[in-house]
Specification:
The complex is a heterodimer of chains A (189) and B (419). Helix content of chain A is 79%, strand content 0%. With 189 residues, chain A is an all-alpha fold. Chain B has a domain at 32-95 and 189-264. Chain B is built from twelve helices and four strands; from the N terminus they run ααααβαβββααααααα. Chain B has helices at 2-10, 13-52, 64-93, 97-100, 111-127, 160-165, 168-183, 186-212, 235-238, 244-291, 294-306, 341-352; strands spanning 104-105, 133-137, 144-147, 155-159. Chain B has a four-stranded mixed beta sheet. Chain B is elongated. The chains are: A mainly alpha (189), B mainly alpha (419).
Chain lengths: 189, 419
């Protein structure tokens, strides 16, 4: 065989290797996005499970307004029962708000905080709140990496052929962003 | 706070990470080259010395071809030995690093250690990794380090000192730094690099011995220079029979050996430490990327600078993976595993777009998780989450973890996934 033929064969083999690499990268990226998404759900579930414990732990205290506890439980139940993702997102955001208020109340009562089960539940729940936001952050990081892969060379050549599309970011709604920056209101009664 | 998060949108973590990795690759190649040069010189010297004292003087000039071959062998051997040595120490050494330092598993019933476990889990989620094992060392020194040769087997160890001294926000930043070491495979990396530098140092010692045993040059040397014979005479005792060319060549070889013996270990140590410092900057960037809060790390570094960070021998393998270098290195700067803390803070400020005019206010006293009965006045003007476990008597930290939700990513998001 002539040298020219070998060169052609070599180039074809090289191209195939590149295509395989790029394709696998796209698949891995998509999988990462899926995993990151389910991690958010895991952490939300964890929050749903923890809230009743905290409510039970503080409900006998004279200091905590029962209405506040009812609000938290209601928001929690709505979030659990949300029929679709859009409703779920809204309910979770509402839950974040009411939960933050409850936290502020518990914070302001040293007698409550000094109870060991309350303080460890508080730590667990606040860690869960952080985990939820970090899970969302990681989801967005994964989406961003995948979108760069899909949109940039050489991924862009293969993405449409194999049905890889750009993913959508998780966006904190303006309402919740405002709520995040707002000072939680504490009613001392 | 609003301008910080706005600046974070402009922050290019990817570029910072790419730059650090490029620097590391360059340094790694330099280290390999040093090893190859040492091997080359050793092989060359051995071949020349071995042959010139065995050959009649008129053939000495014909040595060059054999010497080059031997030198190439030497170069390949040293580079290969460095890599293999690195892999061996990796499989045996890295896993027990933590236990060397006297670490134990974190106790979930202790409030501070509970917080460590939680913060590690949070940072693992942010990095998309399985949570590393949380370990604790009982010492008042302030430090933390990562170990374990892969993210799956990783451990993050913190001292009780740092757990008590830092706010949750600062601890988060410190753990973010360690998670950066884990995610970037720095344990693996620093182990291999240290082993390669170690091989060069070892070879230099060997050269020293070769130099001393100028005795043995008479015995039959192979090209690669394994196995050397004793029993020859010292050169000066044979001088009578040696030609001028022999003496001259021997002198050249000896001078070269001395130069390599002194310069190579020094150079390879310098490169090793330079790599380590690059990885530190990279881990700082990773921390800022994971927490979206460079200020937390800045505060933590300020605390570390003021405190005692001595948990290990300076420049030991543990040292390269700590959040801050154990102090007391007799030669700081060039030989340090860590960049100076002010430099790291400056880079973080730059990265976070934090105004350099940020007042250098004294840091708030660390929170106490041990005094639940302390007299407490409600201070609800800061976010509840960041002080969930902290005594409310302390001033509010600069920023709570909630802010991390605000800038979800460096690029502006488009539309919600549920929309």
């Amino acid at each position: 065989m002539s040298v020219g033929l070998w060169v052609v064969v070599g180039i074809i083999v090289l191209l195939i290797i590149i295509v395989i690499g790029v394709y696998n990268g796209l698949v891995a990226g998509r999988q990462e996005v899926r995993n990151a998404w389910s991690q958010i759900d895991i952490q939300l579930k964890r929050r749903h499970d923890l809230i009743p414990n905290l409510v039970n732990a503080v409900k006998d205290s004279m200091h905590v307004e029962q209405a506040q506890l009812t609000a938290v439980m209601q928001a929690r139940n709505q979030a659990v029962a949300a029929p679709n993702p859009a409703a779920s997102m809204q309910a979770e955001n509402a839950l974040t708000g009411t939960l933050r208020q409850l936290f502020a109340v518990v914070e302001s009562y040293p007698q409550l905080r000094s109870q060991q089960n309350v303080s460890s539940l508080m730590e667990e729940l606040s860690s869960t709140e952080n985990r939820i936001s970090f899970a969302r952050q990681h989801y967005n990081d994964a989406v961003q990496a995948q979108n760069i892969r899909v949109a940039s060379f050489p991924g862009v050549l293969l993405a449409s052929t194999f049905g890889f599309t750009s993913e959508t970011m998780y966006q904190v709604p303006e309402a919740e962003r405002a709520a995040t920056e707002a000072v939680p209101e504490v009613r001392l009664s | 706070m609003a301008d910080v998060s706005a600046a974070l949108y402009n922050t290019d973590f990817r570029r910072a990470i790419a730059r650090n990795q490029r620097n590391t690759v360059i340094l790694f190649v330099v280290l390999l080259l040093i090893g190859a040069i040492v091997g080359y010189v050793v092989g060359w010297a051995i071949a020349i010395l071995g042959l010139i004292w065995n050959l009649p003087p008129d053939q000495v000039s014909q040595l060059s071809a054999g010497a080059v071959l031997a030198a190439l062998w030497g170069a390949a051997l040293v580079s290969g030995a460095g890599l293999i040595w690195g892999l061996i120490t990796l499989t045996s050494g890295a896993e027990i690093l933590a236990s060397f330092a006297g670490a134990r598993d974190a106790n979930p019933n202790d409030p501070h250690e509970r917080q460590l476990i939680d913060v590690i889990a949070e940072m693992a989620i942010a990095a998309g990794l399985a949570p590393p094992r949380a370990m604790v060392i009982d010492t008042p020194a302030l430090n933390a380090f990562a170990s374990g040769s892969s993210p799956k087997r990783a451990m993050i160890t913190a001292t009780t000192g740092i757990l008590h001294a830092c706010t949750r926000e600062e601890l988060q930043a410190v753990i973010g730094h360690e998670m950066g070491h884990v995610a970037e495979y720095d344990v693996r990396y620093t182990t291999v690099v240290a082993a390669m530098a170690g091989v060069v140092v070892l070879l230099a010692h060997f050269l020293g011995n070769v130099f001393y045993w100028s005795t043995g040059w008479g015995g039959g040397w192979g090209y690669g220079g394994y196995g050397y014979g004793y029993g020859g005479l010292r050169p000066r005792e044979r001088e009578g029979g040696a030609s001028g060319a022999r003496i001259a060549l021997t002198l050249v070889v000896v001078v070269l050996l001395v130069v390599v013996m002194i310069a190579a270990p020094l150079a390879s140590r310098l490169v090793q430490m330079a790599i380590s410092r690059q990885r530190e900057y990279l881990a700082d960037v990773s921390s800022a990327k994971l927490t979206r809060n460079p200020i937390g790390l800045i505060h933590a570094l300020q605390r570390l600078e003021a405190g005692d960070t001595n948990i290990a021998r300076p420049n030991s393998p543990v040292s390269a993976l700590c959040i801050a270098a154990p102090k007391g290195a007799w030669l700081s700067g060039m030989f340090s595993t860590h960049p100076p803390i002010p430099d790291r803070i400056a880079r973080l400020r730059n990265l976070g777009g934090v105004a350099t005019s940020e007042p250098e206010a004294p840091l708030p006293p660390p929170p106490s998780l041990d005094r639940p009965e302390a007299p407490i006045v409600a201070q609800p003007e800061h976010g509840p989450w960041d002080t969930a476990a902290a005594a409310p008597t302390e001033p509010p930290p600069a920023q709570g973890p909630w802010d991390q939700e605000t800038p979800p990513s460096p690029t502006p998001p488009r539309k919600g996934p549920w929309g």
